[in-house]
Design a protein that fits this description.
The chain is of the alpha/beta class. The chain has a single domain, classed as Rossmann fold. It has 8 helices and 5 strands, in the order E-H-E-H-E-H-E-H-E-H-H-H-H. It has a 5-stranded parallel sheet, with helices on both faces. About 30% of the residues are buried.
């Protein structure tokens, strides 16, 4: 990633456990809006994910392909705005799917501003067909009869393949 001060760099952070088509939509929008996009897998020490941090980064890289404007990384043990500052990003990108998301993200935006007023939070609202499904909803669909067909419309193909492997490993 360039280090020029004129580069508009944004951090889009999340657990991405599971990466959904909604996340992918956010990344595509960020690519259109910014010069560089840092997709950062947040690591929460107190949570056990479905996939490891490395597996989530691998899936993200498979999905975003060789998009030169996107860098996939992870961060742990710091506030998002501090992480953004450490990678020379002046923006963080957050998605809002519902009024619950709005209330949470509004509060976080104000806290982030208290921590570092130089980092601006940008909000995007995905289209309805992508905003109705969360990672946890998709995870809850896995394992039932014909789950693959139903889940396929909510996640990228690479993620569906990883979910199928994960489900097969669980069954043994």
């Amino acid at each position: 990633m360039k280090t020029s001060k004129n580069v508009r760099r944004v951090v889009y952070a999340g657990s991405f456990d599971l990466l959904t088509n909604g996340h992918l939509w956010m990344i595509k929008q960020a690519v259109e809006m910014f010069d560089e996009v840092v997709v950062a897998v947040g690591v929460h020490p107190g949570k056990n994910g479905t996939f490891s941090t490395e597996q989530r980064k691998k899936m993200l890289r498979l999905v975003v392909g060789k998009t030169k404007k996107v860098k996939v990384t992870d961060f742990v043990g710091s506030y998002l705005v501090d992480y953004a500052k450490s990678v020379n990003a002046k923006f963080v990108l957050r998605g809002i799917r519902s009024h619950k998301d709005y209330e949470f993200e509004r509060e976080m935006r104000h806290v982030n501003e208290d921590i570092d007023p130089e980092v601006t939070t940008v909000f995007l609202m995905p289209p309805r067909n992508l905003s109705e499904v969360s990672s946890s909803t998709v995870r809850g669909m896995v394992g039932f009869k014909n789950w693959e067909k139903r889940v396929a419309k909510y996640v990228p193909k690479a993620v569906l393949k990883e979910l199928e492997k994960w489900q097969n490993e669980k069954e043994f």
